[in-house]
Amino acid sequence: MRSRRLIVLLIVIAIFLMTYRGLDNVDIFKSSKWLEFQTYVVDSGHIETKRQNLPNLKKIRWPEREYLPAPMGAPGSRQLPLDAKFSRAQMHTLWSLFSSFITAMEELGFSDRAMMRRFQPDILVMGLGPRDKIYARLIEPRNSPEDVYGSRKLSAYNWGWPYIDISYYSTNLTHVHVLAPSYLRYDTYAKSDVFPLLLRPFNKFWVPTPRNTFAVLLQSFPGKEDCYTQLYSHIFENGTEGVMLPCRNLAKRYAFVEHVPLHHSIQSKNGSQADLDWVRERLLRDGKVIHELQLVAPRRESNVETYSLQAKSNI
Fold first, then answer.
1. CA-CA to 176 of 20 to 30 Å: which in 2, 60, 80, 232?
2. Is residue 309 assigned to a domain?
3. Spatial separation of the C-alpha atoms in residues 143 and 77, rounded to whole Å
4. Structural domain of residue 115, as residue ranges?
C-alpha cells in the first residue's frame, strides 16, 4: 500500500442529494466556453481555474432550507427523524468548516495529517487514529440559547458539533482502501471508480468527487430502494430513533435529482456505460424543476432512478 490520500466522505455520501443548474435553455454546442468536456476533469493544480469556467452555483436557484428555531443543544432541543438538524448559525458553521477545509487542501497545499493540524485559530482538529475531526471553537455554555457561530460539546466525547470527519485512505495499484471502519465495515473502491476525479456541485461549491459516484454509493449502500434515517446520532454520539419509508413519499418535502442523458452527446453511442459522457441533472421537488445542469459523468449515471439508488429497469 502506498501514499495516503485525504478524501471527505460526506462528499461521497451526499453527492446524489444536492445539485445545481447552469443557464436556462443553453445549447451545449453554443456554450463551449464553459461546457468543454475536460473542464470537469480534475487536474492537480488547476482546480480553481476550472471552477471559474463553470456556472456560479451561488447565483442559481436552490430550495429553501428548513432550520431549527433554536440551536441543537439549547434547552428543549431534540433530534427527530426527518426534521431539521441545524439552526441557521449551526448550518453556517458547518459550511464555513467545509470551505476552510477546501481552502487548506487546495490553496495551501495541505496533503497529510501533520499539515492538517496547523489550521486556522478558530478551527480545531482532533486526531483519532484513522479518522480525524475538525470543528469550530466551542460555545460556552454548551446549552446556550444564542444562535451563534461555533460548535458545541453535546456528547461524552471531547469534540464539538457541528464537525466534519476527515477520513484517510491507502492505495495500491488497483484499489483505494478506507483505513477507518464505517458501521463495522471497511470499504474498498476500485481506482477506476475514483480517478480521475470529476468536479461536481456540492451545495454551492464545485468539489472534486469520485469519477463514478454511483458505483461508490452502491458499494457503501448496496441495493437501497428506501430512504431512511440513521440509527445513530452524530450530534449526541448515541443511538437514536430511525425511520424508513419509500423515497417517493418524501418528494413533496425534499428535493431529489433526476438524471437523463443529453440527446446530442459528443461521445460515441457505441461506447461502454463506464465511458464519460454528458449527463443532464435536474433538481426536482414535488415534480417541479428547481434547477438544471449539464455535467460530465459515466454514461450509466444518466440512467439512475430518481427515487432509488439503482439503474432504471429499461436500461
1. 232
2. no
3. 9
4. 2-303
Which three cell numbers, joined as nine digits, stand for 151?
460548535
Q: For the residues 100-112, what does the mean pLDDT come to?
A: 72
pLDDT for 7: 40
154 and 73 Cβ atoms separated by less than 8 Å: yes
Kindly give, in sequence order, each residue whose CB lies less than 8 Å from that of residue 221, ignoring residues fewer than 6 positions away: 309
In a domain, 313, yes or no: no
Query: CA 114 from chain center: how many Å?
Result: 24
Q: Which helix (H) or strand (E) holds 91?
A: helix 88-106
- Listed range (51-60, 118-127, 153-162, 290-299) with the worst mean pLDDT: 118-127
Q: What pLDDT band is residue 9 in, cutting at 50, 70 and 90?
A: very low
pLDDT of residue 2: 41
- Give me the residue label for grid cell 432550520: 67
Total count of residues recorded for the chain: 315
Q: Mean pLDDT throughout 125-154? A: 94
Are 196 and 38 within 8 A, CB to CB? no
Whether the per-residue pLDDT at 268 is higher than 60: the answer is: no
Number of domains present in the structure of the chain: 1
Q: How far is CA 208 from CA 41, 43, 86, 140, in A?
A: 9, 10, 25, 35
Cα separation, 164 vs 146, whole angstroms: 22
The span from the CA of 71 to the CA of 194, in Å, is: 37
